[in-house]
Design brief:
heterodimer; A: 513 residues; alpha+beta; Rossmann fold; Dna Ligase, domain 1; D-amino Acid Aminotransferase, Chain A, domain 1; eight-stranded antiparallel sheet; five-stranded parallel sheet; 19 helices; B: 168 residues; mainly beta; Glycoprotein, Type 4 Pilin; OB fold (Dihydrolipoamide Acetyltransferase, E2P); 2 domains; nine-stranded antiparallel sheet; elongated
Chain lengths: 513, 168
């Protein structure tokens, strides 16, 4: 086993890896940018190397700096976490060339799964089912009709140069094709200057289900069942769970077998995830994430495994030491994760920034909080908005939902708005509780609608808050009576209409100071 | 002291009378027995009311407060009588126009309207990018764009003035 490893990441995932290192007697080395010098991952590490810079590009994304820090710190291996350099094959290669061990898949495997077209081609060759569709775009409706027969209806037309939902049409029968193609193509031409269209089978009620893989360096690979991540918005996941309500033992075995085959086909090593789209009992390969996933803890809870420990073990050359049957025999209960992001669910999930003032962490049985939060932490736009992951386990899905609701009620993160209330709304929805949802579910909810029902109490508490605030200002020590009076009057809105003097906005600005 | 408190869009009247250091409280005319104790100076508050106990967190200034109870967030606006009158006068003066402010820090990627252009309610005025996400900022009401306060490529803070609309 390694004596010392460097963690090329920040935030909760750096801390997550540090914790396992501590338990294994491996010395964790942190890296940090200028703005992160006080961050929790720096304080919890065995040692910490400054990278300089404040933007990701100047720090955590600078491969040369990270490798130099690893060499200088005496680390034997690098764990990339997720995001940043974790899926850059050039970095994986550079790490190995620098004589360090790479705690991740070989660079060739990252490349083979790198972009959608390459991975789709590789997977088709390996006999992995992909969403039926075309690799190359078509440019007229007649060709589209011919291709549509091969793909099978319903069909999704997507602008070849597209994005943002423009130039997308769902075609359910051949008779709809000519007009749908014409309008979608015109829209695409107007928006992107390219009227060509991709064609793909449209999947009704799609669910996002993914399979956790682990391969050692000796050709052995196992899967740790599935996670469902259908509660998402613009591909940003909010709630994940393991297992999935739509996956039974037979489907789990089938998906697991396909995922292991996909990994083996590209010579995979270490931990990785194969993402599938599930629609009406059928599964289709979507892509492979060649790294540890954000939502890996739900798998850890259900299978009683520390995936980071397994990553370190196999990277150090150890054999898995267990079979697929051993893994599945450990499966127990249900786990859920809620991502606590610094964003405002009442305002279309716009990013929220500020300084964390108030913080109350949930606790109790089978509750896990993976976070790098602390009071006084500044949430800026420089980094990912994810502040924390709240994970619970329960003997069954119903118990896990109730436990998550309880834990969310205990959690307080002050200073920024968070996605937590939106998660609570999902957990209280009957359709979610019954397991009837797909990837469109979160968009279908009216998250801005007022909920909670303690309005009267809140009104009273807010009035008292203001009352005490005003009194404290008036009595603040060191201030003369007149100064306190001035301060108090400035703190208020200008009591007159704008034409009479100072604009209300400037008065408000002063009150914030 | 009488306060007009809007909780999640619904207005309530809260009356606070301080007698010999004791607070007497009425919400919409109804007397409420409530014990309010600050746990720390960061916003944690212990409340006992109507036979229930609440661990509440309250943050904000005199006018805008966010309150969390049992995982639920309540957005609260508070005005006293003077402020209420002033705001009503201000609204009357601008009639649906007014200043559009940025709800988040970001970079103005694109301006979608010109000064002098008439806009409908909800019509996108500009595109603001934050955390690699592009967000269209819409007009709060129908009106005419009186002034644009930002240029394309400009970085803005939360609360920065983006545009001023005049009544149609």
């Amino acid at each position: 086993m390694f004596r010392r490893i460097l963690i090329a990441n920040r935030g909760e995932i750096a801390l997550r890896i540090i914790r396992t290192c501590r338990e294994m007697g491996v010395e964790p080395v942190a890296v940090f940018s200028d703005v992160d010098s006080k961050a929790l991952h720096v304080r919890m590490a065995h040692s910490a190397m400054p990278l300089g810079g404040s933007t990701p590009r100047e720090s955590y994304l600078d491969a040369k700096k990270v490798i130099a820090a690893a060499k200088a710190s005496g680390a034997e291996a690098i764990h990339p976490g997720y995001g940043f350099l974790s899926e850059r094959s050039h970095f994986a290669r550079a790490v190995v060339e620098a004589g360090l061990e790479w705690i991740g898949p070989p660079a060739e495997a990252i490349d083979a799964m790198g972009d959608k077209i390459t991975s789709r081609r590789n997977m088709t060759r390996a006999g992995v089912p992909v969403v039926p569709g075309l690799v190359d775009p078509v440019d007229d409706a007649d060709k589209a009709l011919v291709e549509a027969e091969r793909i099978g209806y319903p069909i999704a037309l997507k602008a070849a140069a597209g994005g943002g939902g423009k130039g997308i049409r769902i075609v359910r029968a051949p008779s709809e094709m000519p007009s749908a193609f014409r309008t979608a193509s015109a829209e695409a031409l107007a928006s992107f200057g390219d009227g060509r269209m991709y064609m793909e089978r449209y999947l009704d009620e799609p669910r996002h289900i993914e399979v956790q893989l682990l391969f050692d360096k000796h050709g052995h690979g196992v899967h740790f069942g599935e996670r469902e991540c259908s509660i998402q918005r613009r591909h940003q996941k909010l709630i994940e769970e393991a297992p999935s309500v739509v996956v039974d033992d037979a489907l789990r075995a089938r998906m697991g077998e396909i995922a292991v085959r996909a990994g083996a086909a590209v010579g995979y090593q270490n931990a990785g995830t194969v993402e599938f789209l599930y629609s009406k009992g059928e599964v289709y390969f979507l892509e492979m994430n060649t790294r540890l996933q954000v939502e890996h803890p739900v798998t850890e809870m259900v299978y009683g495994v520390d995936l980071v420990r397994e990553q370190l073990r196999v990277a150090a050359g150890e054999k898995l030491g267990y079979t697929q049957a051993d893994v599945l025999a450990r499966k127990q209960g249900w786990s859920m994760e809620v991502r606590i992001n610094a964003e405002d669910p009442f305002n279309g999930f716009v990013p929220s920034t500020g300084v964390i003032g108030n913080l109350r962490a949930p606790g109790g049985p089978w509750v896990r909080l993976d976070a790098a939060l602390y009071r006084g932490m500044e949430v800026s736009l420089n980094y990912d908005p994810m502040l924390a992951k709240l994970i619970v386990w329960g003997p069954d899905r119903g118990a896990a939902i109730e436990r998550m609701k309880r834990a969310l009620a205990e959690l307080n993160v002050g200073g920024v708005r968070t996605s937590a209330p939106a998660a609570l709304t999902v957990l209280e929805d009957e359709r979610f509780v019954r397991g009837e949802f797909d990837t469109h579910f979160l968009n279908s909810l009216d998250l801005a609608a007022p909920r909670g029902g303690e309005d009267e109490l809140v009104a009273a508490a807010a009035a008292i808050h203001r009352h005490l605030l005003a009194r404290r200002r008036a009595l603040s020590t060191g201030a003369s009576t007149r100064a306190a009076w001035t301060q108090r009057s400035r703190a208020r809105y200008s009591p007159y209409p704008p034409h009479a003097g100072a604009a209300p906005s400037s008065a408000r600005k002063e009150s914030a100071q | 002291m009488k306060y007009f408190v809007t909780v999640n869009g619904r207005a309530r009247e809260v009356e606070l009378i301080e007698r010999l250091g004791q607070l007497e409280l009425r919400v919409d005319g109804r007397k409420l027995d409530l014990s309010y104790e600050e746990v720390d100076n960061l916003g944690q508050v212990a409340i006992l009311a109507s036979g229930r106990s609440w661990g509440v967190s309250i943050e904000g200034d005199e006018h805008n407060v966010t309150c969390s109870i049992a995982g639920r967030l309540y957005a609260v606006e508070i005005e006293d009588e003077r402020e209420r009158a002033a705001h009503a006068a201000e609204r009357e003066a601008t009639k649906g126009g007014g200043v559009v402010k940025s709800i988040m820090p970001g970079v103005v990627v694109k301006l979608l309207v010109k000064e002098g252009e008439a806009v409908e309610k909800g019509q996108p005025l500009l595109v603001l990018e934050a955390m690699k996400m592009q967000n269209e900022i819409g007009a709060p009401g129908a009106g005419v764009v009186k002034a644009l306060h930002v240029r394309e490529g400009e970085a803005v803070n939360s609360g920065a003035k983006l545009a001023t609309l005049a009544a149609p």
